[in-house]
Design goal:
169 residues; two-stranded antiparallel ribbon
């Protein structure tokens, strides 16, 4: 009995598409999705505080309209929010407490490597932050000195410590 190529089982195109969509996303894609989600949470926190227009949001975040638009749409380049953008947002006098908390969570996760980046890149990011120079809202103080995601403070100082070794998920 001859076996022709037409007799060999071949899944339908729909089955092949379904098999592709059931595969887990690559690690880099999952990191980017997590980062975009956190940036969207920040934008939502500003909106929920009553800053509805782009101008109001830009002023509350201490950013230009175009940068506020990028935060609002969570359409940042691969590296996400830079340390200088974060410093400007945290220095904004009208920044809502929930938005400050979301920014600090973002900083913790980015410094811990949950959004990618080499150890050197994460160290440089943390070094560029000027969190120690900023007044901290009483509601967010517990999130500033966490042991969450491997980030700790050394001797209650305000310097970020980047965890050693590979990142575990």
């Amino acid at each position: 009995m001859d076996s022709h190529s037409s007799d060999v089982f071949r899944p339908s195109s729909a089955a092949r598409v379904q098999a592709r969509t059931q595969r887990p996303l690559p690690l880099n894609a999952r990191m980017k999705a997590r980062q975009s989600s956190k940036i969207r949470e920040l934008a939502e926190a500003v909106k929920s505080a009553g800053f509805l227009t782009l101008d109001e949001q830009a002023k509350a975040l201490g950013l230009s309209r175009s940068t506020a638009w990028t935060v609002r749409k969570a359409s940042h380049k691969a590296s996400g929010l830079s340390a200088s953008i974060i410093n400007r947002m945290l220095a904004a006098p009208e920044l809502p407490a929930l938005a400050r908390t979301k920014i600090l969570e973002y900083v913790e996760e980015k410094a811990a490597g949950l959004y990618g980046g080499s150890r050197s890149q994460r160290r440089k990011f943390a070094a560029r932050l000027s969190i120690e120079k900023l007044p901290v809202c009483g509601q967010t103080e517990p999130t500033v000195v966490p042991e969450h995601n491997g980030i700790t403070r050394a001797n209650s100082e305000r310097s970020w410590v980047i965890p050693e070794g590979p990142i575990r998920y």
